[in-house]
Design a protein that fits this description.
Four copies of one chain form a homotetramer.
Chain A lengths: L4 E5 L3 H17 L6 E6 L3 H11 L3 E3 L3 H5 L5 E4 L6 H10 L3 E5 L6 H14 L3 E4 L6 H11 L6 E9 L22 H4 L2 H11 L2 E9 L4 E3 L5 E3 L5 E8 L4 E7 L8 E8 L2 E6 L5 E6 L9 E5 L7 H4 L9 H16 L9 H20 L3 E2 L3
Parallel strand pairs in A: 1-2, 1-4, 2-3, 4-5, 5-6, 7-12
Antiparallel strand pairs in A: 7-13, 8-11, 8-17, 9-10, 11-12, 13-14, 14-15, 15-16
Helix pairs in contact in A: 1-10, 4-5, 5-11, 8-11
Chain lengths: 372, 372, 372, 372
């Protein structure tokens, strides 16, 4: 068969990341048909034309519905702002296209539910862009846990911290509006939730606390405006099977740039990981000799598939964009009907339900169970 | 005046640590009278005699009340198991002795309250052995926060983890009995609480979750016994002044040996510290140039008093036992009526109230305010 | 103008790396014509055809000279074993093609000299594949040194260590033959030399010591064969301008996977870097406050161009293959006649002269000046 | 028998360190007679009296020969500037006292030789103060190597760096005079040499390079003075048994405070250590599973004797001064005729011979064998 026909909507941070992945996946893996970069949609036709030239798409349009209508397009990458995901993804699915949608699904739970329903009806692939689960280190950690390398897991902590909201003197912008969501919780806490899901399953019950480091932010024209959501969130959780977990998210954490730090404690050892040093993880096993026990810093290596598809030597390092190439390859597997390491709209919805439960637990100052 | 006359009750882990501190404080600091190591009490006279010889005490006894009665004794170090603290500390205070009592005050809140009342009546020094607050790194962090080096603090995380309860095959012993306390919470979460108090003030409200990694533990003679308290505790907190904090304690954390990790986030920077690397801390300041911002690893140096009393060169490192020597020096200051960096029975009681509030919040699955 | 027509010879580790770079450079940078992947040559036509399909080349051949003759080809990537570089690069240059040749130039100095002469005659671009110099961290370190961030540099140490020759039980193979070169010195010490050159200029004088960790290695059929070159090399050096340097290379260093560690000492600060953690460097400046001085761990960020072309957010990390994309972009600049950050055959030859001087200094047990 | 009678000459950095050790050794170890702190000598009687009071010595004197003559003194701690070591140590040995002398023996080789001869004649203990060899981490590394944990060692690197001479604006003082010695080489390179000796035996042959980061330094009254020795030294070495080693010393290394970094490469693994984090070492063993191989960070623990004498729990950390207490305990063992982990005047002399050989190799720009 010829390669998949790709349509891309949006060319921001994630749009470019999708484009790079579609462009490289065949060369990196060497075992799939080269995708055809058919058409790109942007907010206006000029921008779309310029971006199509830059990113290697054959055609461009200022109207994303053109992509939905294009028979040469097999799959649509949805990388627009979150508020547009539902409309686009549902339209694509209903037109018989596969969908690769950036996280989160949608600001409103009802929209996410409609997306999931559309996916179910369509029988097409509907996958979320949770790229951190694709890190070979995370995939190997999953395998280690499965094979009992640290015994039975009993406690987990995960932190996600960046500092893009840390400056109190930065002007008020839409990320501080209530309409954009709860703040740290849905802005990026969904990433650590995707990791927890992949490693341990879904969340059962939660209680969250949230704070506003800065109650007001300056306006461009002078004066200030009240901040409407929370840059810091901390959550106690119980996961499927009873594992206790703590989730911490802070988008005002000076000095943190892309921290997603996992601490996993088991009955026979522990595992540590931090996305800021994404090419290593640490493993402690109590079976090591008493006087030589310690956390082992393991560097990414060809033994940690699919690192080997990128580089044949250990310790040379993958980058953030490489994770998207791996995700793209998984997508192709899934479309072929093979087992894939992906988060579809079903599990994506469950992740978003847990976020909404957290917000409710904060509002009501009590433990809340996550709807299944 | 001649040096303080010292009586020591108990010669375990902390008893020896007190003895070493009393023995070295004058030589290290060079500005106080040499304490007189007058008398040592242990559970029986033989052990007491042997330990007195080892640790350099002039006399010994199998009856701790002999120390209370000894006019040559000015201060009593109480380092026995927690259940004995109240009786000994109160007797000493009532006999007009100063008291240096290991943490926590007592398993029962009522006992802690009686201790605090006795201290108040006695007008003698009644200080807790919260040695981690004495680390020059912690003292410097306190000074940095006070002078605004990281702006206004808005969020704090603290973890205290060790692995002495991590082995599921280890035999049941008293630390798993309900009579010994709540488990991780009072067994060592009081240490991070002492740090939070010193840096930010007291705890206002809490909600805790706790888990038992192992519901049963083997018995020596075969069979097993149910574990009665919790080795893992996680707590959401609000501190005085509104700072939000997360406290995590795990005494079953394989690979952690003496971790007390602080993450302090402010409006202009962040500070990190981990007691496992007690001679360094990390400082991030947003005033550094954009392309050269990063966490600065600062090594302990003579500029961080009283490190300079131990070593005149930077980066050579203090040890755990040195913290007790510093604490001992603070004690002597306090007895002289000088300002000292110590936690007395008043603040100690408040710390214990917050522990009991945590336990209650877990039992009742709700936020609990800490009684003042 | 249309994009460059690319011919690729060789599809091993570096061949694939070149292919990925040619494939992605336009999409990543968005400011260059998309290269045309014209033709690929491999050792036989079948392999060539398969690899062309995988890597996205339009045509393929079992005879590399076909690429030289192809008018649609503007530039040749030479990624074959070192012994073939001279013949291919010279043929390409003489046919009026630009050349991008993997390091080192050639095992024999005379061949490297012929390559440099051919480049000079051709007036075409002749660039070496020294990808580590392209790391945005290295490029920023160069800028920091130039602007005096650490004052005058007076001493440098660089280590390059991997463990692919560390196993004494691994079978003898060609890397242990004298015909393959000196061992650690030319096998990879040229990489740290490329960094030293970019940061400080060329090497003036050297004295080296070399050792064989294992004097013999087993043969497949039984018995063993004497090792003919040295897996460990250590070199004292003086650089242009009098800076003293130590170069250490060990390809039998268990646990090291891609370590290229720099320590740069100046009159006002120091800089540290390690390629195993390629997305960070450490900076110490004596202008920081006395009690807060420390090495600052700086994470790669958009401020460190051209990181921003890959990712708009800090701390997310580039990978090893991304360095080749940057190198490819520099190549395109150089071909356009713009200033580029590259090592051409002139400087490449000088690097190889310093390697041969090291080998001679070891053989003659004396300091040797590097021929200019 | 009663405890040793101690005389201390000098009360600077190391003098105080000896005093603290003598004062604590019995309490820490609990298995030796408590030393009697008999007499202290300083440059004048007033200072001596004041220091004796501070450090707990019974008597004091402004004339060090009084200590030599005092029958109550069994052992003399010599902690004066290096130029005085020979006279004092020889007088003490000839008077039948044991001697504990700070490193190095003496600036002039002839003096060191006289010291060694005096020690030999006296049949008393004559031990050097090489405290870093006492670190339980170093002692455990020695044991690991001996038991083959990393196979046969083939290559070693050691760095010793501090920054007390790093400031070019600091005034000229005696450490930059030729009379004080070679600079970095004897000022502190003897410390890493003591570690190499303990772990691998003596040095056979050397070639050194040395540099002056600053050729002149300012004088207090204005103007400047030429620097007469070298703050940076780098040495290629061959050790007993053929192991190759690189020794690097830099006392102008901004940001380094007490770095003594070891990298030990063997046929089955590697070991790393850095004195700046003196309570840990790293171990890599190729016998670990391929996908989980990594450097294991091992924290100091009771399993690493005699850490257990200080603290019964792992990971709590010893300090620099604790190393001297361990050294003191070894001394007492040696005096009792038991096997001890110490460097006596014989091996101390051999270390100093290797330093002088390094200086000569630099002057003559050639490899020099160390006299045995």
């Amino acid at each position: 068969m010829a390669g998949l026909g790709v349509g891309l909507i949006g060319t921001g941070y994630m749009g470019k990341c999708h484009a790079l992945a579609w462009n490289s996946v065949a060369s990196v893996f060497g075992d799939v048909e080269r995708p055809r970069l058919v058409a790109l949609a942007e907010i206006d036709a000029d921008l779309a034309a310029r971006k199509a030239a830059e990113l290697g798409f054959a055609t461009s349009t200022g109207n994303w519905r053109d992509l939905i209508a294009d028979p040469a397009v097999d799959i649509i990458s949805v990388t627009t702002p979150n508020a547009f995901h539902a409309e686009m993804a549902i339209a694509a699915l209903e037109a018989g296209k596969h969908v690769w949608c950036e996280k989160p699904m949608a600001p409103l739970l009802a929209d996410a539910e409609r997306m999931q329903a559309a996916a179910k009806r369509s029988r097409k692939l509907a996958a979320m862009g949770y790229n951190y689960i694709q890190n070979p280190m995370i995939r190997h950690i999953k395998a280690l846990i499965a094979e009992g390398a640290i015994g039975t897991v009993n406690h987990v902590r995960v932190e996600m911290d960046e500092d893009f909201m840390a400056d109190p003197n930065a002007l008020f912008y839409w990320k501080s509006e209530a309409a954009s969501g709860y703040g740290a919780l849905d802005d990026f806490a969904v990433h650590p939730l995707s990791l927890l899901f992949m490693l341990f399953g879904h969340v059962d019950a939660v209680i969250a606390d949230m704070v506003k480091p800065y109650s007001e932010r300056p306006l461009a024209g002078g004066g200030s405006r009240g901040v409407e959501n929370h840059d810091v969130a901390s959550v106690l959780m119980r996961l499927q099977g009873g594992v206790s977990a703590v989730l911490m998210a802070n988008r005002s954490a000076w000095g943190r740039k892309g921290r997603i730090a996992l601490q996993i404690f088991g009955s026979e050892g522990s595992i540590l990981f931090d996305q800021e040093r994404m090419n290593e993880f640490e493993l402690y096993q109590n079976k090591d000799g008493k006087a030589e026990q310690g956390f082992r810093r393991v560097l990414a290596a060809p033994e940690h598939a699919p690192y080997n598809r990128f580089i044949p030597a250990p310790g040379h390092g993958l980058g953030f964009n490489d994770l998207k190439i791996i995700e793209c390859r998984e997508l192709i597997s899934a479309i072929k009907g093979e087992k894939a390491h992906l988060i579809g709209f079903d599990d994506g919805l469950r992740i978003e339900r847990s976020v909404h439960a957290m917000a409710r637990s904060f509002a009501e100052r009590r433990w809340v169970s996550v709807e299944t």
